[in-house]
């Protein structure tokens, strides 16, 4: 498969599209957790109940399809190969937990991959809307439409005092998790993130790595999300997150401006050294690739590099993950082989922009 074709098939809309504050915010995600009141939670249900839930979702999606997304395709985890599931995780379309739930996990996926409805993850249903840039309000609107569509055909577990009931008590209430993926190299280079993260935690929000809880912030990419789902409306949760993210955007821009004033030549040198590594390396590990990609993206945003689109970070941070590299190669690769493939793919991708 040619690189052009591979990229065209692999890149989701959230990786390539621009939008509000897209120089700092890579994506906005809304996730709603729901459970049906006639089945036990996934932690307790039988194999038969798990399969019945999938069939219920299949029936709704085929007989009463949601309009406006070009159709939703049902993917059953039990019918996918481990590598295929890994790619879906790397694209942020399903969770690692769902990938491990075979054979009773599934997801409804939209053609543009902005919508993924996970079935039989920690809860029966997890509606996810993943939009490019800083578009939390639009993502919430779409998630609510999908929620209404499902609720027209299913009866959810709901309590008048506590709200929507979920497997984990931390999701009870609205069942809403809102998150924003941000590129924050300025705050990292000026050593401010260690001070900012505890302050954000005190506001009822949490800062995690690239792939959520327990993951590392590769390439200076962080996820900021809410922790509280009970006692607040969906709109209030989103507005609180938007307010904090807005402050982070302002602080990141200020940090970049300060770096340009006090360390301009050093920063430009860092950017071009990283660009040189990406353009010429024959072998590169994932952490080094992530660091160099972050530097190059910062160089693009600050005007040092003018002939490469800024979505290059979004794309290559995903395309150089182990699952994608092996999919591109057509089969399993040893770690060193992945490092060689990663370097080759990055070189090819950068050359495409020069043609």
TrEMBL record:
Keywords: Allosteric enzyme, ATP-binding, Kinase, Nucleotide-binding, Transferase. GO terms for molecular function: ATP binding; creatine kinase activity; protein arginine kinase activity. Signal peptide: none annotated. The keyword ATP-binding applies. GO terms for biological process: phosphocreatine biosynthetic process. Appears to be allosterically activated by the binding of pArg-containing polypeptides to the pArg-binding pocket localized in the C-terminal domain of McsB. It is an enzyme of class 2 (transferase). This is Protein-arginine kinase. The gene is mcsB.
């Amino acid at each position: 498969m040619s690189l052009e074709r591979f990229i065209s098939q692999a890149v989701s809309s959230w990786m390539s599209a621009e939008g509000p504050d897209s120089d700092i915010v890579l994506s906005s995600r809304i996730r709603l957790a729901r459970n049906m009141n006639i089945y036990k939670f996934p932690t307790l249900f039988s194999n038969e109940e798990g399969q019945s839930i999938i069939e219920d979702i299949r029936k709704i999606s085929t007989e009463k399809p949601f309009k406006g997304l070009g159709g939703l395709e049902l993917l059953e985890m039990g019918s996918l190969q481990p590598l295929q599931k890994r790619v879906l995780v790397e694209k942020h379309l399903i969770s690692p937990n769902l990938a491990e739930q075979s054979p009773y996990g599934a997801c409804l996926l939209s053609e543009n991959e902005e919508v993924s409805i996970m079935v039989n993850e920690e809860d029966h249903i997890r509606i996810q809307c993943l939009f490019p840039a800083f578009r939390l309000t639009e993502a919430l609107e779409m998630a609510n439409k999908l929620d209404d569509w499902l609720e027209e055909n299913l009866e959810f577990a709901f309590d008048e005092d506590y709200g929507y009931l979920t497997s984990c008590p931390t999701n009870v209430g609205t069942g809403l998790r809102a998150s924003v993926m941000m590129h924050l190299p300025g705050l990292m280079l000026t050593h401010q993130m260690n001070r900012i993260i505890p302050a954000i935690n005190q506001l009822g929000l949490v800062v995690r790595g690239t792939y959520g809880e327990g993951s590392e912030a590769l390439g200076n990419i962080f996820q900021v999300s809410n922790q509280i789902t009970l006692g607040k409306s969906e709109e209030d949760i989103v507005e609180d997150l938007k307010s904090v993210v807005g402050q982070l955007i302002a602080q990141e821009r200020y940090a970049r401006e300060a770096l340009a004033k006090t360390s301009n030549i050093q920063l430009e040198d860092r950017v071009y050294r990283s660009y040189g590594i990406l353009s010429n390396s024959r072998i590169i590990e994932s952490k080094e690739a992530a660091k160099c990609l972050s530097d190059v993206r910062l160089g693009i945003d600050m005007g040092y590099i003018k002939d490469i689109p800024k979505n290059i970070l979004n794309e290559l941070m995903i395309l150089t993950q182990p699952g994608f590299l092996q999919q591109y190669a057509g089969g399993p690769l040893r770690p060193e082989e992945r490092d060689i493939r990663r370097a080759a793919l990055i070189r090819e991708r950068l050359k495409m922009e020069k043609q």
